[in-house]
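Q: How would the structure tokens look for this protein?
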Amino acid sequence: MRTWLGDQVRKRLGTFGLIVPSIAQCAVGAALAWIVAVHLLGHAHPLFAPISVMICVGLGFGQRLRRVAELVVGVSLGVGIGDVLVSWIGSGPWQLALVIALAMTIAALLNSGELFVSQVGSSAVLVTMLVPGADAGGLDRMADALAGGLVGLVAVALLPASPLTIAGRHLSGVLDAFSTVLEQAAEAIEKGDMDLAAEALECGRRTQTAVEDFAAALENSKEIIRISPLRWHHRARLARYTTAALPVDLALRNARVLVRRTLAAMGEASPPPVALAELLREVSEAALLLQLELGAGREPMLARQALLAVAARERPKNLGFSASVIIAQLRSIAVDLLEATGMDHDAASATLTPLDELSDESIRG
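A: Here is the predicted structure in token form.
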């Protein structure tokens, strides 16, 4: 119980550490947007300015430039529809329902983006229920939204999160999951334990979320570097994460296939030989080396050397069908990870020792 609780606390603190810069950007940016709208634009109650900052900055989901554009257009459309309808029919529960339905319908026909439709609807709600009859008109609210969006971008540029920390933390999650899957499969092969193999397969099936989170984090990191001159010097290091992204995803997919075959092999007359467990662990350790070297900002040469050693290994003799499939998947994983270190596909594939076609005897096994 204590171990689980400690793990959860460390996980939450790690996640919180990643979003602290975004919280600071939202807080400082919202205050600055309010000051700009009040003192430069002369708006007494610039509600949309700080709201725009929080929508623009968010908690690090990326696509900030697009969000600013959708925000301004969405606020303008929502405010316009709300102003017109309120002037005709007044405000109240049924008027609110009608305004939301019409505003979101028009928005969805113009642009099916979730943020755009939601922004149009929420802007219409604010106009209908919170600020009916206020002095500020649609153009003033549009200006507030634009000011808030621009201040949000400035906050990201001047108070940037570390793109390398964001990308590195999420890639570590992917490679940790990959390594765990292979370690569990290796243990299952050593012990001939079908339950361990099933556990490894279940673990592998849960890894896609980590891959998707890494992809989103990588896009977020790229956008931070585009927006913030303070992070431009990180472009070369971030490029290594970009190079690794797709091959690592493919390696994890191949690992899931490998574990599925491992589980199937446990019920066969010729289970995988224990020697395969050593190969799985070598690839697992190479993935962790890749993680460490990218995090340290180095070319992943040690990981590449470890993978080259696995790729050059002779294929074990007299394997059954399932074991041969496992070997084939492991070779594919080695190629994927070599590509993640920066090798091109042809060069990585050329490092593998030739495989003879499976004999009829091995297939029957």
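The mean pLDDT is 81.

Residues 27 and 157 are 15 Å apart (CA to CA).

Upvote if useful.
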